[in-house]
Specification:
Helices cover 60% and strands 7% of the residues. By secondary structure, the protein is an alpha/beta fold. It has one domain. Helix 13 links the parallel strand 5 and strand 6. The longest helix is centred in the middle third of the chain and has 22 residues. It starts with a strand and ends with a helix.
Length: 288
Amino acid sequence: MPPPTIYLDQDALINLYEESVKTPGFKDKLTKAIADAQVTIVLSPWHWVETAQTKDLTKALPLAEFMDSLRPGWLRDRRHLETTEVEQKFFQFAGISYPPRGAIVARAELLTEMNGFYVSPERAPTSREFVEGWIKAPKLMEPIVDSYQKNVRALVGLREALALGKVTSEMMKEGDRKHIQRHLPKSTPNGVVLDEGTKNAFLDKVTQTDFPTLSIESEIAEYSWANRGRTDWNSMIDKFHLISSTPYTEIVVSDDRFFYLLLPSAQKTGHVKAAVMKFAQFCAKFLP
């Protein structure tokens, strides 16, 4: 039986690192649990982003090195997961063979997808190199920061429109359809261009609730629209951790209060597969 896939949010990762440094024997227990395949730790690109926000290299780089010492699986970014979900269901609808893609991959495969070109395992940057590069060249982070700022502006604008009654159910339905449409493939895996009629027939049949990541993201967005969701950087990343991890890992470790506020909205979708643990519970169960 394979070991459980355990996703650590950023605070849980930091707690695990600090325990490994300060508590005698803890690092040995952790190393043994990983070596004996008792656990599979899962991280995501957002751990690199959050670590790179720590401008102090003496703190950020040891944490980045610790990431790779965990021999983690890497959870693909939510946008790539959403595309895979839509493509898989579309090709099934169209009766076209589609090779399945896993949600958890090796670091080189993750970087290949993020960069849009092949990165071999031998040439894949380490987590330390990735984080150090972002800290020393802040411009590399600008696309992520710009995306965050656009999300905040959109959220604020939507809250105002909702308060004024300017958003109808039909507008919401059309927005959901366009969101799914953005993830549709242009061609088959063999390169045959897909006709618009088949795409439209598919879009008429499905809703966002048919796709795990899209469905969870939609529910969390509705929570945020009701003026309960925060718009700060950390809150945005907390959402990203939850959206991607809960449908594709077996356990998520978090002590974050905002995470637990969002969790019931995600669970309403029926797509949440992960059990949720506090850090102390994780240690008691897997590193006694």
